[in-house]
Amino acid sequence: MSANCPHCAKPLEEQQLDTLSFRCCRDCKGMLLLHHDLIDVLDKSWRAVSRETAETTEFLVTDGWRNEPAFPCPDCHQQMEKYGYMGIAAIQIDRCDPCSVVWLDADELQNMVLALAKTNYRSETAWEESKKGDWDMITPAILSDPRAGTLRNGRWWLYDTSGFQSGPAFQLFSLLFR
């Protein structure tokens, strides 16, 4: 499908990368791809950014991004909707819902991968900290009861007070906190 770049009106070139098909502009380095392909690319790409790089690298923001006009969709020519990726206003994505395509300016894909890596690494860190906090709540209970935390009849019993035994609960805890 032949179409022109919404940014500079030059013809878009069909490109293929493995199973991904997209169109790009050689002049402004923008690209047009299906929305679901973008999600797949982001999901497969963010781990290529190290945790340290994600935390120390700033987004590449083009001057004048706030004043960029709405672009027409290269396929249907309707005005594309602008939105900030992950709520980040500096990463403005142009999307055509009827065609299910997104237009990415030159640095937007890189910024999106970086933003996803920052968010996912911070989420992982928060999850690890919450797991540590959960264990910190369990450990005093185990240490305060000399009968707790023992292996009996081939099962690990977390508590054994007043006839209440919750060995299987510990098995669930151990699965959750590996």
Number of helical stretches of at least 4 residues: 4
Quaternary structure state of the chains depicted:
single chain
Coarse structural class = alpha+beta
Number of domains: 2
Portion of residues in beta strands equals: 15-25%
Extract low-pLDDT stretches: 155-167
Give the SSE string: EEEHHEEEHEEEEH
Sheet with the most strands: spatial strand order: 1-2-3-6-5-4
Q: Strand count, sense and closure of the main sheet?
A: 6 strands, antiparallel
The overall pLDDT average reads 77
Task: Determine Rg (CA atoms, Å).
Answer: 25 Å
Could you tell me the number of beta strands? 10
How are the SSEs ordered, and which strands pair?
Layout: E1 13-17, E2 20-24, E3 31-34, H1 35-45, H2 51-56, E4 81-84, E5 92-96, E6 101-104, H3 108-144, E7 150-152, E8 155-157, E9 160-161, E10 164-165, H4 167-176
Antiparallel strand pairs: 1-2, 2-3, 3-6, 4-5, 5-6, 7-8, 9-10
